[in-house]
Structures are given as structure tokens and as C-alpha cells.
Amino acid sequence: MLAAFCANRIWRKQMKKTVFLPAVAALLLAACGSGNEAGEANFKKALEESGGGRNVCLPLVLDVQTPDGQPAFRNVAVGEPLLQYAARDAAGKRINETAAKQIEILTKEGFYRKVKAQDGGDKNAPAVFELTEKGAAQARGTPRGPLFCVGKQKIGKINWFTTPTPDNGFTVSEVSYQAELDAEKWADKLIKAGGKEWEPLKEPRNQSITLVQTNKGWKDMRDLSR
Length: 226
Fold this sequence. Notes:
Largest sheet: 7 strands, antiparallel
Radius of gyration: 30 Å
Order of helices and strands: HHEEHEEHEEEEHEEH
Distance between the termini: 71 Å
Helix content: 25-40%
Number of helices: 6
Shape: elongated
CATH architecture of the largest domain: Roll
Number of strands: 10
Structural class: alpha+beta
């Protein structure tokens, strides 16, 4: 009887270990593998780590016309050393009021400062503004003209993603997502002052990216090569 009782207790302990150990192993594997699962939550986390909070710098071109009614092409892009506009046309009618409001916002923020026109006695002389040191720090030069940084990138919704597949030794997935502009306060005012033509700057933009599966979760492929 005693031998049977002891054998029964030993069997129960072994059964507990048999059930308990696989359960723990499964939980550990799940915890380790959850960050590598293909899904919107993990992909959005990877996108935020890679591109969330990144500066958004855009080409901002003011709508300026010359006194003879033609569109101006010089000194109208925010970030250029000089911005200028005429306040009246050849007939004395007020023009460029929207551009004037936007330049006022840039001036109040300290990105530009007004300078005296060379022909100070001419009432029709254009108003001229020069880029400040603060403004130069906000600008990014490109072959096509300056960009001006207006806020940070915010990751919106995931549109779609492909089934993870092997590619040159990596497991990758193509992800399409929406990038939104989290504009600074002054930039929000600048965009609103620009009217309907500037409204699309705040609309979400569809972008795509290649994510790579690593032991630390999904990562932007471009980050692995840095």
C-alpha cells in the first residue's frame, strides 16, 4: 500500500511537470515571437520608430503676380534668400494680399525680416524681405529650389501589406501607409492663410516602405544599411 501511494504521488508530480513545462515554453515562444508577427500593430510600431517624428520639409511657393498681371517666378519660394511682392498693380489696385499675409506670418515667426527697398521714394516699389539665420536653419536646399520645414511626420493608418516572403536571405513585407503632417502652429496659420490651394498640404499622403523581419521586430530596410 505504501509503495502504491508513493508511486501515485510521483506520477502526479511528473504529470504536473509534463503539463507545466510545455505551457511555459509556449508562453515564452509567444512572447518572443509577437513582435515579429505580420500585422498592422507591429508594422505601425516599426514605421513610428523609423519615420514618426521626422521633419517634414516642403516646397512652399507663394502666389505672387507682378504689377502688369503676370505671375512672378523669382523670390517667391519660402526659403530663398529674398522674398518680394508688389502691393499694387499698374492701375493702383491692391494685389498679392494673400502672399502679404503669409509673409507677415513668416516675419512674426522670425524667419524673415523686412528690408528697405532700393527705391524708397517709389510707392509702387516691391516690399522686400530677407531670410534670417533662424529661417536659414529651417530651409533645405535642393536642385529644384528650397524646401521649408513645417512640422513632423505622423503615421496614420496602414492601407495594406504583402504576405512576408524570403528575399536574398531576409524576410520582407511591402507596406502601404498614410503619412500625415503634424504642422507647427505657425505653419498651420501659413497653410490656412494660403487658402484652398494650400489645403492639400495637410491631407494624408499614401507612401510605401519595405520592412524587414529581425530578431528585434520589423525594421525599415533603409535603417539596416546605415
